[in-house]
């Protein structure tokens, strides 16, 4: 099996050479062609993002032990207000499953149970817990708060994003 760096390089070579697989071959609407990730995050619908991320971000696709370090790094790089929004959404969705903020604080050794007082490490623990135990919530939060994705660098995530990027860029 090739190393992570070799794998990333091969994906980029394939994409640069036009060797792409579109997620949705039938979509030819020019208004749905995105210039870059930020454009996709701004103009795409929540359902469109959820559909794209739902297939890619699941423990069956990317094991937790590979995703967690990347999540930690990505969450540390997003803006504090975006990190607060991500934490708030995780807590809200997990609360709907009967997990109280205080229980999560205790179980995950978080510094606070208030989303606006959580540091990057706390949000990373919350994201990793959700990814592993509630992947559907993880996918929903990514669809609502896609800022985290810009900073993920895991090769498997890169492959998934490469396939999604082929769709974003359309047939330009």
Would you give an account of this structure?
The protein has 172 residues and is an all-alpha fold. The protein has one domain (32-169). It contains nine helices and no strands. Helix 4 runs antiparallel to helix 7. It is globular, with a radius of gyration of 17 Å. The protein starts with a helix and ends with a helix. The model is unreliable at 22-28 (pLDDT under 50).
Largest sheet: none
Termini separation (Å)? 32 Å
Q: How many separate domains make up the residues? A: 1
Unreliable runs, pLDDT <50, ≥5 residues? 22-28
Radius of gyration equals: 17 Å
Order of H and E elements: HHHHHHHHH
Features:
globular; 63% helix; 172 residues; 9 helices; mainly alpha
Short description:
By secondary structure, this protein is mainly alpha-helical. Helices cover 63% and strands 0% of the residues.
How do the strands and helices of this protein lay out in sequence?
Elements (H helix, E strand, L loop, with lengths): L3 H13 L20 H7 L2 H11 L7 H14 L2 H17 L4 H8 L11 H14 L1 H10 L10 H15 L3
């Amino acid at each position: 099996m090739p190393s992570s760096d070799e794998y990333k390089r091969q994906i980029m070579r394939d994409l640069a050479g036009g060797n792409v697989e579109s997620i949705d071959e039938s979509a030819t609407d020019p208004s749905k062609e995105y210039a870059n990730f930020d454009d996709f995050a701004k103009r795409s619908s929540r359902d469109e993002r959820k559909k794209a991320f739902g297939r890619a971000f699941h423990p069956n696709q990317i094991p937790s032990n590979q995703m967690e370090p990347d999540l930690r790094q990505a969450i540390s790089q997003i803006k504090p207000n975006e990190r607060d929004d991500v934490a708030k959404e995780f807590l809200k969705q997990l609360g709907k499953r009967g997990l109280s903020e205080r229980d999560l604080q205790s179980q995950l050794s978080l510094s606070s149970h208030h989303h606006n007082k959580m540091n990057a490490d706390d949000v990373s623990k919350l994201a990793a817990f959700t990814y592993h135990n509630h992947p559907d919530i993880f996918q929903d939060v990514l669809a609502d708060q896609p800022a985290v994705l810009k900073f993920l660098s895991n090769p498997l995530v890169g492959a998934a994003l490469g396939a999604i990027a082929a769709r974003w860029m359309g047939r330009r």
